[in-house]
Amino acid sequence: MFIHGTRKTNVVNLLKSIAPSAMIAFAISLASFSTTAFAQASATTTDNTPASVTIQSGDAALTTPPNVAAISAQLSAQDKNSAPGSKAAELFAPVTKANTPKIYTKPIASGPAEMDLRQLWNELKINNPQLSSLRESYLSAKATVPQIAAPANPQVGLVWSGMPVNSPFALGGANAPSQQYPGGISSNNSISVAQPFQFPGKKSLAADIADTNAEALLASSESTYLQLGAQLSTLYYNALASQKQLQVLKESVVRLEMIKNVAKARYANNAAAYVEYLNAQVAQSAAQADQFNVERQLQVALNNINTLVGRHSRERLVLRGDVRRALTGVPTLIELEDYAESSHPALKSSALQLDAARKGVDLAKKAYLPDFQVIGSSYTPRGPFTANNGALFYQLELDLIIPLYFFTKEKYGVEQAQRNQAAAEAGNISNRQQIVLAVNTAYAAYEQAKNQTQFLKERQVPQADAAYKVGLTQYSNNGQGFNDLLTAQTQLRNLEIALAQAESNLLQAQAVLMVSAGKEPF
To answer: Which of 377, 420, 374, 370 is nearest to 395 (CA)?
Structure first.
């Protein structure tokens, strides 16, 4: 309960009139209640938080890893005290081959446990299932190219005729003289080989179209890789921001401990109300409770990173990164637009699709040209499976396959190909406009995040720190203004957390800007 105004003196006089033994009992009872409530809150917050969260960074402000030893001890105690049918021990058990889901085909210890952003991108490229699927689809499309370019399969024919009555399978005596047929029955037994082939240029053009489509699929997979990399960078910098927020909350707990000690000393000297000590204790407990929320957010970010790079979500992961190195110079907007228009994988894919559509029009026009078939036959007067005792001669046949029915299929095939080309041209223009617009939008977001970070770092945080120090000094020297001191401490904590989030937003905006231009953010 917060009491302000003129009633403050009355409460102080009331507290003075209370016996010391009763006051001590009241303080012990209140402290016990606060401790019990805080323990329940922390147990509720960290019920599902694994104890293997570790992040290290090269930045001086991000070097202290979160201290989760207390959480680990609490989880161990919960596992020991859990009922026989409880699943707590199974839920927080280490990752082993026995409890790994079947969808994970890689070993449990896959790759190094300490990785920076570049190594995470490499893991993403190699192990992400979505990218693996796209790679296999590309290889499958490339495998169709030699199939299309290969010649058509030949046809082998075997002909025999004039079977005698009641001898349907007289393969060797179909032409033997008989009393009824002195000259035999037939001499049309033959073996033939037919080879169809298309008009020159058709197969090579169709194979070229298939190869172009395969390369367009590869460029599209590279664009997907950049999008997943942007998501990975966002998770990475969010994890670093959570680490910085944990450090800020720890410092806030230390500052509130100082305020609480000063309030306690002033109360002992009858210079402050006991409620000031209680308010400082409540604020400290709230800051400690916020730590568990941030630790949970950090663990969720690490689980998402592990899953995105193809690792098990519960594997131990240590992130390393130098934020100062990441905040390097960014190219100008004109340079990024030029690079995007010339090198972005999405534009490469649309350009290749347009090229394939133009070649498709040429292939559709070639449908007016005829195809061919060559047939070579060998004739014998005997059956095909008996010794030849007669004349043997050969025959060569050339067939011409021409489009009939007033070129109906060919005419509409050309129209379809032309429509596809027009759609590909419009899609290519649209993609180019969208890429340039995305670069402009990302650059504006980067500039805004940069200005906000500079404003917080250079003005607001130093001002809040100075206000807190002045308030603490005045209050420590038996001055008034406890509520002002708490307000200054809260503002300092909020601004430091906002600065950590602003730095994370700036790094995320820089990564998104590079990805929008078609570049990796390092």
So the answer is: 377
- The Cα–Cα gap between 431 and 409 comes to 32
Full-prediction pTM beyond 0.85? no
- For residues 220 and 40, the answer to whether their CB atoms sit within 8 Å is no
Q: How far apart are CA 59 and CA 504, in angstroms?
A: 13
CA-wise closest residue to 326 among 124, 65, 454, 514: 514
Q: What is the pLDDT of residues 283-321, one digit of tens each?
A: 899 888 999 999 999 999 999 999 999 888 888 888 887
Which residues fall within 8 angstroms of residue 396, CB to CB, at 6 or more apart? 374, 375, 376, 377
DSSP conformational letter for 19: -
pLDDT in tens, 353-371: 999 999 999 999 999 999 9
Name the pairing type of β-strands 114-115 and 53-55. Answer: unpaired
CA distance 499 to 381: 99
Q: How far apart are CA 222 and CA 134, in angstroms?
A: 9
What is the DSSP code string of 373-406?
A: EEEEEEEESS-TTS---S--EEEEEEEEE---GG
Q: How many CB atoms neighbour CB 30 within 10 A? A: 14
Residue type, 52: S
Of 92, 57, 59, residue with least CA distance to 74: 92
DSSP annotation of 296: H
What gap in Å lies between CA 16 and CA 11, rounded to an integer?
Answer: 9
Q: Which two tokens stand for residue 350?
A: 């649309």
Residue pair 137/217 in contact by the 8 Å Cβ criterion: yes
Q: How far apart are CA 247 and CA 252, in angstroms?
A: 9
Instruction: Extract the tokens encoding 204.
Output: 């090579």
Residues 6+ apart with CB under 8 A from 408: none
What is d(CA 199, CA 210) in angstroms, rounded to the nearest whole number? 18
